[in-house]
Amino acid sequence: MVKQVTTLAKRTPERAFLCEVSNAALQQSLNDLRTARNNFFASLSGKRKGRRVGAPRFKSKHGRQSARFARNGFKLRRNGRLYLAKIGDLRVRWSLKDPAGRSIRLPAEPSSVTIIRKASGKFFVSFCYTTEDDDTLPPTPRDTGIDLGLKDFAVLRDGNAVPNPRFYGKGEVKLARLQRKFARAKKGSRRREAQRVKVARWHERIANQRDDFLEQLSTRVVRDNQAVVVEDLAVLGLSRGRAAKSVQDASWGSFLRLLESKCDRYGRDYVSIDRWFPSTQLCSSCGAVTGPKGQRGLRIRSWSCPCGVTHERDRNAEINIRREGRRILAERQETMSKKLAEGRSSADRGVKPESADKRSLRDGTGG
Ligand SMILES: [Zn+2]
């Protein structure tokens, strides 16, 4: 199979372009395909846990491009350049900083490197390496729930609201103008290509601003809290209406993924609560289900419970989410200590510490 899709394929005129790149990159593609296919079938048969994995897709020669080089396909030069098989030495603008803010190259020997060309034409290289660092942060007694929403992106403990930055909304007018110009340009013309790059750059700009915002917010939340409690993402679609859905969904999803991985890395507790938990409807004072319900309740920002307390919607939801999280954590700890006690009584088995974790980082070369 390897020979058929590499060596033999190169002899056909349609796929002669395969000769232009290193064999290492082609083989890596095949390895990736095998992994993707195995994951897909394992996911279908239920052997693989977690999120559903889709079928592998063909790579396109348009838009974002990437190639991965394993150990034998690249070398790091002393002078900071990166050698890639069949491409040669590349100048890299290293962007990693150590905790003191000094520029460094890589903290460990990389096992693979991926080179990416964005739709805008900018190049990036991403290294994969393993470290033994223990990043666990000192414990804090503080915890927080997070109520995600449209008006405020997130409401944290004590009604601490993080306004929705709406990067997309702000850039939309300009984006629409760029896209109109692109659509009017003659197909295949140089002007059209220039216009395409402008649109792609604008998209990347918005995405970068959004990613930066999500990274900073998630880091702050994880640093300040020992436990972070969130609602299952499935619940958000149901309870927050249709407005700006696709864009907002993407941000919520990435935010929760960032939170979870950072909690894992820094030794914090991440709790995702059940999709049926009525976080907005519960009165956080008396525990009755008296809050706004359904589609019509979406606009109600504050409400009064018959018990006499007036609630601000998001703040009340955060309290409920945090409480439910504490309950789940207590339950987890109980089963953990039970298991530990059982283990101790049956045999003297050591607990294996988890140490190495895989991380990848991104460095930019000039665009
Ligand atoms: Zn009440």
TrEMBL record:
The Cas12f1-like TNB domain sits at 252-321
The UniProt entry, under NCBIfam families, shows: guided_TnpB (NF040570), IS200/IS605 family accessory protein TnpB-like domain (TIGR01766)
Q: Where is this region: Disordered?
A: 332-367
Tell whether rRNA-binding is among the UniProt keywords.
no
Keyword annotations for this protein?
DNA recombination, DNA-binding, Transposition
**Under which name does UniProt file this protein?**
Transposase
Q: Tell me its family.
A: In the C-terminal section; belongs to the transposase 35 family.
Tell me which residues make up the Probable transposase IS891/IS1136/IS1341 domain: 126-239
Tell me which InterPro entries the record gives.
Answer: Cas12f1-like_TNB, Transposase
So which domain of life are we looking at? Bacteria
